Amino acid sequence: MYRLEIIPKYLLVCVLSFGALFNTASANPVDPAEGGKGILVSQTVSNEYDSFKKIQSTSFEDLKAMGYTEEDIEYIKNFDYEASMQVKVNKLQKLDESLLENAGYDEKQITTIQNYSGTEEQLARASATLSLSTYRNGSSSSSTFSSITFSTYYNWSSAPNFLLTDIVAVPWSEGMYLDNSNSNATISYVDLTTGAFIKTANPTVVPNINTGASIKFGLGYAINGTEAYAKSGNFNYRLTKNSKVTEVAIQPAYGHTFLSVVSPTVTYPGGLAVTFSYQVSKEAENYVYSAL
Hints:
Layout (H helix, E strand, L loop, with lengths): L22 E3 L13 E9 H9 L3 H6 L4 H9 L2 H12 L4 H6 L4 H8 L5 H7 L2 E13 L4 E11 L8 E7 L5 E2 L5 E8 L5 E6 L3 E3 L3 E7 L1 E4 L2 E16 L5 E4 L2 E5 L8 E5 L2 E4 L3 E6 L2 E4 L1
Antiparallel strand pairs: 1-8, 2-3, 3-4, 4-12, 5-10, 5-14, 6-12, 7-8, 7-12, 9-10, 11-12, 13-18, 14-17, 15-16
């Protein structure tokens, strides 16, 4: 993968088949908007380069206070994103335009790749962007039982530079509980270079009592010489409570890992907040308030 030529070995995650972690599925996750299901209630778009640059520009003292070790901080400060992108662009320049389009690059990005010289503007334009969208799918409320269903969908425009372990977490209000039997997630893996579909996987939905739930998945995937990444995913969750609920708020967040860790974590400190382990950047976040 691109990062293998840039990131030191002590920060690599061994990229293996995730068959032991996920159950494979047959259907490619589709943006709920494309299937005509649900109402879009929140959407956020972010850029991997901008997010990493923000972390890289954070002072040594602040990074230390956030939990980063001195070794981590040295790596972050010295990491050459431009050199990493140059390696990636060199490979992409060998592909024709149709393959670049299939890989998710738009017309401006393709022009940037073909004429890449490493300027700041080109670096930002050629890097991957993440779209995080949340849809309301339906609800009901009575004096004895209330329920509401949401779908949070993520999509990377193209392969990110950091392919480690990412998290989507959703905190909610009103003390509602996750309906496990009607909550699920599907992740779609595509070829790292061409964007061709490879497989889907179903990460486990992990509830946190009555405050939130999350999914965790390897962003990179490799088996039998094929390198892929988790381009998109759909996280469906139904919330219920055995009482009258008139309104609920949720705040889904996508955590993108920049430093390898055995298992990145997420906690729910209260309210609509989520806290990821320090190696994970909160790449995008939605806020949704909805009446039932």
